Amino acid sequence: MKKLINDPKNVVEEMIEGYVKAYPDYVKQLPENKRAIVTTRKTREGKVGILIGGGSGHEPAFMGYVGEGMADGVAVGNIFASPSPEPILAVTKAIDKGAGVVYLYGNYAGDVMNFGMAAEMAELDEDICVGTAITTDDVASAPKEEKGKRRGIAGEFFVWKAAGAAADFGYNLDEVVRVAKKANENIRSMGVGLTPCSLPQTGKPSFEIGDDEMEIGLGHHGEPGIEKGPLKPADEVADRLVNEILEDIEIEEGDKVAVLVNGLGSTPYMELFIIFRRVEKLLSERGIKIYRSYVGNYITSLEMGGCSITLMKLDEELEKMIDHPVNTPMFVQK
After folding, report:
1. pTM of the full predicted structure?
2. CA 64/CA 76 separation, integer angstroms
3. Taking every annotated instance into account, which residue ranges of this chain make up the domain DhaK (predicted)?
4. 239 with 139, same domain?
5. Which of the residues 35, 47, 58, 240 is marked catalytic?
6. Buried b or exposed e, range 94-126, using 16+ CB within 10 angstroms
7. Fewest CB atoms within 10 A around its CB: which of 78, 112, 203, 264?
């Protein structure tokens, strides 16, 4: 597949360089590690630091959410690969304001290993307290009784939002971790893949699918889903995804939810809004109130076609977190 790149080996470094130059009022690279990016905005002493990160190729995640109300720094990995412990530790040291740092990342083996190593290094070598919350929102990736084995996909956005707000409100390290974990427990997502992406290093499709096919439950890196079959109309796709989510989490009449319809990279906004239209109808019919809605490309997979639906069940505390203002290069909420 065609790519507007130079040398495939340097694509991540060149992307980071361009991003930092595009948004110097928001972010900067740390001189000791080019994969470590932190906010340029002044943060107060005693604030818990929020560190997110993961592989490249999911833009605007993860770099796009460093700013006021969300993350204080990000560690950037290779395409679809975890960052190494070194940039994670560099960001940790840079954003620690004396109250510790919370690591937020998806449930992938490489991330679990490398963020875990960085946490040990921060605590043993730098005397920085680190808390961790891992996102496990993808209902297609493991049964309900094995939720701890599930992948983190677009629901990570809501976890970052909740944790960033809690840190701004002055919660201590343990409380920020509690809020992040509470958010994760109340989030479910499921996606559909329509077309593959291709890695710059190979130019080959990440998975095989026919022009008239779709795959339910496909992962953000092209991990196999739970069912491949003929392409269905948008309403039928939305019905399937929403019903699978509602079978997995108890959301009743009168409950409030935040909804995210997330594009995977190449799906037009027209199609995302058609999906949201159906989601709103399905929830309204069940007496479930949409408290806030988000539609767009929040966590992508290069140029993959398809989308995911995320529901976050809200209570008074989580409403407060979702309402908190955010000002980042890729997401602003007033």
Report:
1. 0.98
2. 11
3. 7-331
4. no
5. 58
6. bbbeebbbbbbbbbbebbeebbeebbebbeeee
7. 203
**Is residue 163 assigned to a domain?**
yes
Range of the domain at 89: 8-184
Place of tokens 């840079």: 94
Are residues 175 and 226 located together in one domain of the fold? Answer: no
Tell which of 130, 160, 184 closes a domain.
Answer: 184
Q: What is the mean pLDDT of the chain?
A: 97
Q: What is the DSSP string of 175-239?
A: HHHHHHHHHHHTEEEEEEEEE--B-TTT-SBSS---TTEEEET--TT----SEEEE---HHHHHH
Query: What Rg value do the Cα atoms of the chain yield, rounded?
Result: 19
The three-state secondary structure class of 63 is: helix
Largest CA distance in the chain: 55
Assess whether 94 and 174 both reside in one domain.
Answer: yes
Structure confidence at residue 1 as a pLDDT band (50, 70, 90): confident
Instruction: Give the whole-angstrom CA distance, residue 41 versus residue 27.
Output: 8
Does some domain include residue 151?
yes
Q: Active-site residue among 221, 240, 256, 313?
A: 221
Task: State CA 68 to chain mean position distance.
Answer: 17
**pLDDT tens across 208-265, in order?**
999 999 999 998 888 889 999 999 999 999 999 999 999 999 999 999 999 999 999 9
Is residue 220 among the annotated active site residues?
no
